[in-house]
Amino acid sequence: MPFRGPIRRYLDWLHLRWPAGTVEPLPEVRPDGSTAVPGLYVVGDLTGVPLLKLASDSGARAVQTIVAEPAFRSRPAEDGTLDLVIVGGGVAGMAAALEARRHGLRFEVLEASEPFSTLVNFPRGKPIFTYPTGMTPAGELQLTERSSVKEGLVEEVRERTVGSGITPTTARAERVGRDGSRLAVYLAGGDVRRAHRVIVAIGRSGNFRRLGVPGEDLDKVSNRLHDPGGYSGLNVLVVGGGDSALETANALAACGARVTLSYRKPELGRPKPENVERLRALRAAGSVSLMLGSEVKEIRDDEVVIRDAEGAMRTLPNDVVFTMIGREAPLGFFRRSGVGITGEVGAAGGAALGAFVLFCAWLYHWKSGKAIPLLGPLPPWLNPDPARWWAALEATGGTLGAALRDPATLLGTLRISASGASFFYTLAYSLIVLVFGIRRVRRRNTPYVTVQTWTLTAIQVVPLFLLPEILLPWMGHNGWFDGGVLKGVADALFPAVGYGHGREYWRAYGLVLAWPLNVYNWFTPQPLWGWLALGVAQTFVLIPALVYVWGKGAYCGWICSCGALAETLGDQHRHKMPHGPRWNRLNALGQVVLGAAFVLMALRVVGWIWPGSSADRLFRVGFDGYAWFVDLFLAGILGYGLYFWFSGRMWCRFACPLAALMHVYARFSRFRILADKKKCISCNVCTSVCHQGIDVMAFANKGLPMEDPECVRCSACVQGCPTGVLSFGQVDRRTGKERGSDPACLAASPVRRVEIPVRPA
Ligand SMILES: Cc1cc2nc3c(=O)[nH]c(=O)nc-3n(C[C@H](O)[C@H](O)[C@H](O)COP(=O)(O)OP(=O)(O)OC[C@H]3O[C@@H](n4cnc5c(N)ncnc54)[C@H](O)[C@@H]3O)c2cc1C
Ligand code: SF4
Ligand code: SF4
After folding, report:
1. How far apart are CA 738 and CA 673, in angstroms?
2. What pTM does this model have?
3. How far is the CA of 692 from the centre of ligand 2 (A)?
4. Probe ligand 3: pick from 725, 728, 752, 756, max atoms within 8 Å of CB?
5. How far apart are CA 657 and CA 54, in angstroms?
6. Count of CB atoms within 10 A of residue 356's CB?
7. Minimum CA distance residue for ligand 2 atom 2
8. Strand ranges in 596-716 using DSSP code E only, listed in sequence order
């Protein structure tokens, strides 16, 4: 093994050892199927999980949402304008059609080839898994026992739809556009359909993925198996490791073909357990040869060249190749229709992103009063002084003016606190957490989310706003800290210098925001022993204990103010967090910031002992740079500037030094997300909703307890999983054995429908 330096080994141990699967781009769709284009809905596979029942459910629900819209109910009756056009006659589109008929709408279904073409093209005799087993989809398109094989499924869905009078028009839609107050669906050939609402249900019928090897265009290479019976006695290569590949290999082998299954990964983590078991049985019977960790290099007329797991080139006799490596979603249709694609910013989005980052740059310089590097302080027109607003009010005289001038009154205290920009920043921050917290609770209504959101909101509002900005100053002005025990406490924690109130009450933020997230109570000109004692207990005793039992999320997801905003304002942007190995490497940035905080702390201590020494001078320069670069630029300008484009956890995941420290603690934690492997259908929903970029599915579909230290216990994966695989739990640190779900989790798990925007595998 080549030499690997200690830093690389440390980062492997901490971050790089964890799987880092990516998430496929899909159209931006809200939980109710609506999109940024008013009146245009997307349902079925393109909204989340590729499952029949969920497709049917989403189609019916979209129509229910439409008919409940006040604007739709008051639509003008216009000649030639339909109430609804449904593009795609698959399960989702036909479920929408049944629901539209039930509501008496004037609608038309447009289908490019034939109704249920995706199902019709399943291999003959394909077993059908109707997950989630306990779920009954909304609407009339239900699946019964008959649908446990392809033929029964096609028969049943046709009977319930086409058989009951729903007749799609054969036409391919090219895009959807706006035509005044209506939507226009443009068809291949030039026809147009106009409607008040459009539901797009075209499934994942985009281009088939390609292997990119010589010989791929030969006639014997196909990406669809219709009838496995025709391949008996032939040498067949199936490429891929998902359900389609395994079902193809199993069906061919069962019909007497000599099958080789080649998959580039070293294990079959994705397919349904039933398919894996069947493959194993056929392999044991000698009907299938399995080449894991292999790569197809070339396809020739009568043979194929494959590099095996050991790196050796093997040439196998071959008659037919099935490349079952999936399809790309038809993103072009959505781009042409003005629907955003996850992960794509675009020119208008880029301009909006740039403008918002600039706004954050202004906001954080105004709030902190710091100068902009190389440019100096904010000019007066960008630097409004709230003290002036109060001066104008005070000048009004009367009772109001008198109350404002008296610091012992609540109004007087408020005037002093609200004379600085940071008061307004914290007030706005707390209001946003409160408003978006209420919305989160309404949207993701589980007991876990409710308690978590109210806890985060209460901590933000009370100790992180009311206490430092109003309560403590008011107590101070009313003599509470003039003598006795409280004076001792106040002297230790809020030294009596400067800042309007005569004491530094702002230091109370440190009661919640621990070192090194908040460094200002430690990096002081003279040691503040009260804060040092309290801070050491927080950072090195209390937080490690919390992390040991409940994981890092006990702090990041239940206490911290950055977490409060991310779980409320950021809740609907969680799927925008980038995933993949490159981004996983960036997790190391937090370790660099943490290292800088420790170095500064060491310099600070030396500076306290030898004031004026070079260590002291170095500390001052380093601290100025740290305060601007880490607190203002990384946490503020980038952390919030990127919020609506890259999720609300950019700062938390990549750069927060306290999170970086907790990642180390979390490696010794008992907390895990447990997975019931046999229920996992490898849909990737859990990974796609994780705003810490964790590849949850890579653990779940192997039945491994999820132990990536980045987890913030937001519960999105537990709640979003359509088959109820995941639960918060614990393992025994000594034996590694699972100790079961923790009771709090039961309230978080699982709902039948995916309630948050998702991007499936
Ligand atoms: C090989 C395979 C095996 C599967 N096995 C299972 C299983 O066992 N259990 C399970 O629950 N799910 C399974 N699924 C998933 C299931 O098939 C899908 O979830 C379901 O078909 C999605 O329905 P849909 O209506 O969203 O899309 P689709 O069923 O794909 O329907 C989309 C329709 O839109 C039409 N269309 C496309 N483009 C246009 C256009 N531009 N204009 C007009 N019409 C258009 C297509 O012709 C198609 O008829 C499987 C999928 C595949 C591919
Ligand atoms: S609870 Fe799930 S979604 Fe949330 S951070 Fe942890 S792994 Fe990610
Ligand atoms: S654990 Fe993840 S991949 Fe498995 S079924 Fe649930 S959401 Fe899908």
Report:
1. 10
2. 0.84
3. 7
4. 725
5. 41
6. 16
7. 717
8. 671-675
